[in-house]
C-alpha cells in the first residue's frame, strides 16, 4: 500500500478556496478526503430531525458527487475522532493529516489529542488558517496583548489587510477510490431528513451594496443569510471579504465582528461559561422559569419580541436587529441570566456559532468585552416604531388572534434592571 495524505474536513465544507486542502493536494502524495460525524458533538443533540446535521450532510453529499466525477470519493466515518484515526491507520499508510484550524476550546482539545496520537505513531499533523483572515496573535495591541474593544481592533484589522489569496484545487491529486463510494446516510448516524434545502451559497450584490441602508429593518429581510455558510465553511471567508471590500464597508465590519468574537473566545476561553467582566457574576438574576418559558414561546406580550421568538422557533433564523431586542428583553426586562438565552439560541439557530452567540449575548447583557453599557435597555415599543413601523414583520409572525398582555411594564422593568445592576456592580 503506497503512502497517502489525509485531508480532514470540519468547518470548511467546500472544495474550492480551501487552504488546508490546497496544501494537502500540493504535498506530493495522493490525498484521501475524510469527514468524521463526531459522536462527541452529535450525542448532545436531542432532536434527531436536526436541520444543521442535515445541512452538513447535504454539503458533504455535494462534495462527494464532485469528487466522484474525478474518480475519487469522500470517506465518511461516525464515532470519536481519536478512535477513527486509530482505525484509519489500519486502512491506509498515512504520511500527514492535513486540516484547517478551529478556535473553540473543545475543538482545540480534540485536535491536540489527535495530533499527539498521530505524532506518537510517526504521522505528521499539519493545520492551517482558513475560516478567518486573522487569527490568534495576528492582530495585537502595541503591548502584544489582545484587543478587547471592537473599534481599535477593526482599525488594526483593516490596516493589516494585504492581498487576499485564492487557493486552487488540483483534482488530479485526489486518491483514486473505487467501489462503494457513497457517504454515510443520515439514518446511519441516527438522524432524520428535514426540509432544509442546500444550494451552494452565493453573495447577492444588490443585498450587500445597500446593506448599510436596510439591514436593520426585519420586514425587508435585507441580509445575506450567509451565517450558516460561514459557520460550516460552505463559503470561503476570503470570498466574502473580497466582495465586501468592493461593495460595502458596513458588511465588511460585520465580517470583522465575527473575527473579533473568535479571537476573544480564543484568548479568553472563560467566556464560554462566565462573564468576560468578572464583576457581572454578582448580578442576582431572577431566573423565573415560567417567564423564561413565555419568552421561549414568544408569549411576552411585546409583539416585536414575540415575533422574533416565533421566527426563530419556526425557521431557525432570527433577524439580527430582533436578536438584539429579544436578548435585551430577557436579560434586562426579565433579569434572566444571559446564559439561559445563549443556550436556547444555541439549540435553535441554524447559524449558531459559539463565539458570535456568546459574544452577542454578553453584549446584550452588558457583561461582555465590548459590551453595551448596562444602562442601555432597549424599549421594544420604540424599537418597533423605528424598525417595523408598519408592523409588517410583526404581522408576518404573529397570528391575528394574538392578544397577549405585556408580562411586565417597560418603565417598571427598566428601573428594576438599573437598580439590580447598580447594586451588584457597586
TrEMBL record:
<keyword id="KW-0456">Lyase</keyword>
<dbReference type="GO" id="GO:0009416">
    <property type="term" value="P:response to light stimulus"/>
</dbReference>
<protein>
    <submittedName>
        <fullName>Deoxyribodipyrimidine photo-lyase</fullName>
    </submittedName>
</protein>
<comment type="similarity">
    <text>Belongs to the DNA photolyase family.</text>
</comment>
<feature type="site" description="Electron transfer via tryptophanyl radical">
    <location>
        <position position="285"/>
    </location>
</feature>
<dbReference type="InterPro" id="IPR002081">
    <property type="entry name" value="Cryptochrome/DNA_photolyase_1"/>
</dbReference>
<dbReference type="InterPro" id="IPR014729">
    <property type="entry name" value="Rossmann-like_a/b/a_fold"/>
</dbReference>
<keyword id="KW-0157">Chromophore</keyword>
<dbReference type="GO" id="GO:0003904">
    <property type="term" value="F:deoxyribodipyrimidine photo-lyase activity"/>
</dbReference>
<feature type="binding site">
    <location>
        <begin position="254"/>
        <end position="261"/>
    </location>
    <ligand>
        <name>FAD</name>
    </ligand>
</feature>
<dbReference type="Pfam" id="PF00875">
    <property type="entry name" value="DNA_photolyase"/>
</dbReference>
<feature type="binding site">
    <location>
        <begin position="351"/>
        <end position="353"/>
    </location>
    <ligand>
        <name>FAD</name>
    </ligand>
</feature>
<dbReference type="InterPro" id="IPR006050">
    <property type="entry name" value="DNA_photolyase_N"/>
</dbReference>
<dbReference type="GO" id="GO:0003677">
    <property type="term" value="F:DNA binding"/>
</dbReference>
<dbReference type="GO" id="GO:0071949">
    <property type="term" value="F:FAD binding"/>
</dbReference>
<keyword id="KW-0274">FAD</keyword>
<feature type="domain" description="Photolyase/cryptochrome alpha/beta">
    <location>
        <begin position="3"/>
        <end position="133"/>
    </location>
</feature>
<dbReference type="InterPro" id="IPR036155">
    <property type="entry name" value="Crypto/Photolyase_N_sf"/>
</dbReference>
<dbReference type="InterPro" id="IPR018394">
    <property type="entry name" value="DNA_photolyase_1_CS_C"/>
</dbReference>
<feature type="binding site">
    <location>
        <position position="251"/>
    </location>
    <ligand>
        <name>FAD</name>
    </ligand>
</feature>
<dbReference type="Pfam" id="PF03441">
    <property type="entry name" value="FAD_binding_7"/>
</dbReference>
<dbReference type="GO" id="GO:0006950">
    <property type="term" value="P:response to stress"/>
</dbReference>
<dbReference type="InterPro" id="IPR005101">
    <property type="entry name" value="Cryptochr/Photolyase_FAD-bd"/>
</dbReference>
<feature type="site" description="Electron transfer via tryptophanyl radical">
    <location>
        <position position="361"/>
    </location>
</feature>
<dbReference type="GO" id="GO:0006139">
    <property type="term" value="P:nucleobase-containing compound metabolic process"/>
</dbReference>
<keyword id="KW-0285">Flavoprotein</keyword>
<feature type="binding site">
    <location>
        <position position="211"/>
    </location>
    <ligand>
        <name>FAD</name>
    </ligand>
</feature>
<feature type="site" description="Electron transfer via tryptophanyl radical">
    <location>
        <position position="338"/>
    </location>
</feature>
<dbReference type="InterPro" id="IPR036134">
    <property type="entry name" value="Crypto/Photolyase_FAD-like_sf"/>
</dbReference>
